[in-house]
Amino acid sequence: MSNRTLSPKQVRNNEIMEEANNEAKRIMADEELRHAAQVRLNVTSNKLYTSLVREYFKAARDAGNKETTIP
Q: Do 42 and 52 contact (CB within 8 A), yes or no?
């Protein structure tokens, strides 16, 4: 696996995932933000981290789609 080469799309997905993890950790560390996110996403506390990552990833993907469709 050390000789593998990633496509540009795979590299971008890895970057988005790293950003999503950092953002989720930042929110989880702040009690006020954590509570607001839990209410907004309507999930239990044990599913909050995964939901935050999913939300970030979806927002990044949607933003990427808008950039590619604008001439």
A: no
The Cα–Cα gap between 57 and 71 comes to 24
Mean pLDDT of the chain: 89
In whole angstroms, give the CA distance from residue 65 to residue 48: 26
* Predicted structure pTM score: 0.81
Average pLDDT of the residues in 37-65: 92
For helices 8-29 and 31-41, the axis angle rounded to 10 degrees is: 120
Distance from C-alpha of 67 to C-alpha of 61, rounded to nearest angstrom: 10
| DSSP 8-state assignment for residue 3 | T
Q: Distance between CA atoms of 4 and 29, rounded to whole angstroms?
A: 35
